[in-house]
Every structure is written in C-alpha cells, then in structure tokens.
C-alpha cells in the first residue's frame, strides 16, 4: 500500500460534478427523510429522489414488496405526490444538505416529459433530471419508451425542449437492442446513461397458491440482477460517448469496482440501502483502500479496465 497517498474520488458526469461516485438510486431512497434517521446524505456523491410524475399517483394495490433469493420484488407503481408538491415540499429540505439532487421523472406521453422539464427547469435545488423510459407509453399502445429506440429518442427530445441541465436517461435491460436505445438517448440529448432498471419478475406463495404481489408481477432488484446489469454496462459504455452510471445489486466496494471496470464512471445503490444504511460510506472507504493499494490518485484508470 502506498503510504500518504491522497485519493481524489470526485467524478464528472458531463456538467454534473460529484464529490464521490456513489449515488442514491431512485425508489428505495424516497426523498431522504427516512434514510436520514439511520444514515448521512453527505456520504453520497448525489441523491436521486423517487420517480416523480406530473400529477399525484396513489400507486399499486398491496402487497407491493417482497423479499426473494438474493433480491427483492417491488410493484410500488410510481406512488408520489406529484411534481408540484416535490418542488414545493421536498426539494427545499434536500437542498440544505449540499448534495446534488437528481429528480427521476416519469410520464405517460411525450407531452408529459416536456411539461415536467419545464416545471423543474426553474426549480431550486435540482442539479439534474433522470428520465425513466421504463414506463408505459400511452401514445405507443403501452410499449415502454425504453424498449424502442425511436420512442426513447422522442421522449428525450421532448424533455430537452424545456430542460437545459444535465440529463440522465435510465434504461431497461429488457430492450431487444439496448445499445441502439442508448445511442438514441444520446442522440436525443442525454448527457449520461444510467442502467439498469429493475427486471420483471414474480413470486408465488405455495401455501395460498397465489401471487405474492398485488399486481402479480413486479421489478426485481438486488444482487440477483448484478450479472445482467454488469453485462449491460459493459456493452453500452463502449458504444456511447457519454458517461455511464451503473446500478443493479451493488452491496460492496468490490461490486462498485466491477461496475467501474465494466465502464461505469459512477454507481448507484438501491436495495442495498435497506440492508445496510452505511453502505455508501463503506463503498467509498473501500474504493480509497483499493486506490491506495494500487498507487492510484483517482479511479479514472479503473473505468473500462475490463474492456477487450
């Protein structure tokens, strides 16, 4: 180990500067109120609030969460108070921590995305938007925006009409041609690609002979999807000219390093926070230890190290 080496963990995601590469993923983190009872927001390089829509949504019928081997299923259904309430009630409190806030936004139509971009453009405390293109596209007959490259391009262009800041686009691993969708997102105006979103799955209670979730199916997250997420990051990061944020089953600094070696400039943690609220602190500590052990002043050399 190199003694006295100062390690710089800061990361540039286009115009978005993070003090370290660990981001709180959308969904599990909520708006940070619950997390702050157990952890410290300043352990993160940035925080992403849960999926926000134009109008309030009550979410799906319960049960909405269940544990599975090496992961969890959720069918929350984008429950949120709506964009106006987030701007007026949630963001002012979050802004006080001095950590960049990324707002994850979802819409049913291209017009929704354009309007959401306009609402958050002037909102205090918003550093970036993360466009969730893994939601139903009413105008395309229920197909998810992120499955089709043309729909993804139009969705990104729609929000770009009104939102001028950093724009992450969160992709689904279920796209038939994920690389084509990622390239379409960048062409449309994405400055960062984040992946992966959850993978569709289900659980059955053998005693009742019924599905565990109220909606039958839900999104699988956690260590169970890590191999799939790594493959997606590896493929997409080599195909686009913008930074990539990797996520999917990251529960240790070694996991984070693997995603960075696959091509991610930063990583996002989600389900792991439910198990260990101190996870971001442990990951950054582990990254510093790795850098010192290998004589690295930063981790830029690690990004894409596994490319062949």
SSE topology:
Layout: E1 11-13, E2 16-18, E3 22-24, E4 46-52, E5 65-68, E6 71-74, H1 83-95, E7 101-105, H2 110-121, E8 128-132, E9 136-137, E10 143-144, H3 149-160, E11 167-170, H4 178-188, E12 192-195, E13 199-202, E14 204-205, E15 210-211, E16 217-221, H5 226-237, E17 244-247, H6 253-262, E18 266-269, H7 272-275, H8 279-293
Parallel strand pairs: 3-4, 3-18, 4-7, 7-8, 8-11, 11-12, 12-17, 17-18
Antiparallel strand pairs: 1-2, 5-6, 6-16, 9-10, 13-16, 14-15
Helix pairs in contact: 2-3, 3-4, 5-6, 6-8
Structure explained in plain terms:
With 308 residues, this protein is of the alpha/beta class. The protein has 8 helices and 18 strands. The strands form 5 sheets. An 8-stranded parallel beta barrel has the order 3-4-7-8-11-12-17-18, surrounded by 7 helices. Strands 5-6-16-13 form a 4-stranded antiparallel β-sheet, with no helix packed on it. Strands 1-2 form a two-stranded antiparallel sheet. Helix 2 (110-121) packs parallel to helix 3 and helix 6 packs across helix 8 (279-293). The chain is globular.
């Amino acid at each position: 180990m190199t003694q006295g080496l100062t390690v710089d963990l800061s990361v540039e995601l286009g115009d978005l500067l993070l003090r370290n590469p660990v981001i709180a993923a959308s969904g599990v983190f909520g708006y940070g109120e619950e997390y702050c009872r157990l952890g410290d927001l300043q352990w993160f390089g940035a925080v992403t609030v849960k999926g926000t829509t134009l109008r309030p949504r009550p979410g799906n019928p319960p049960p909405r969460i269940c544990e599975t081997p090496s992961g969890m299923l959720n069918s929350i259904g984008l429950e949120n108070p709506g964009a106006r309430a987030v701007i007026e009630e949630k963001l002012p409190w979050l802004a006080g921590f001095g950590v960049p806030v990324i707002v994850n936004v979802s819409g049913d139509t291209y017009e929704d995305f354009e309007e959401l971009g306009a609402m958050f453009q002037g909102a205090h405390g918003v550093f970036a938007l993360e466009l969730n293109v893994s939601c139903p596209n009413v105008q395309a007959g229920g197909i998810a925006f992120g499955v089709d490259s043309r729909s993804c391009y139009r969705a990104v262009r729609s929000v770009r009409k009104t939102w001028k800041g950093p724009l992450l686009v969160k992709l689904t691993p279920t796209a038939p041609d994920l690389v084509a969708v990622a390239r379409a997102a960048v062409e449309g105006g994405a400055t960062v690609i984040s992946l992966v979103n959850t993978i569709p799955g289900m659980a059955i209670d053998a005693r009742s002979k019924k599905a565990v979730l109220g909606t039958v199916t839900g999104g699988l997250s956690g260590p169970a999807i890590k191999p799939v997420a790594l493959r997606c990051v590896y493929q997409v990061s080599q195909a686009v000219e913008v930074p990539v944020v990797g996520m999917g089953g990251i529960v240790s600094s070694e996991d984070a390093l693997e995603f960075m070696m696959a091509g991610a400039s930063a990583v996002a943690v989600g389900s792991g926070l439910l198990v260990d609220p101190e996870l971001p602190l442990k990951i950054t500590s582990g990254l510093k230890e790795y850098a010192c052990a290998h004589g690295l002043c930063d981790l830029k050399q690690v990004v894409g190290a596994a490319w062949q």
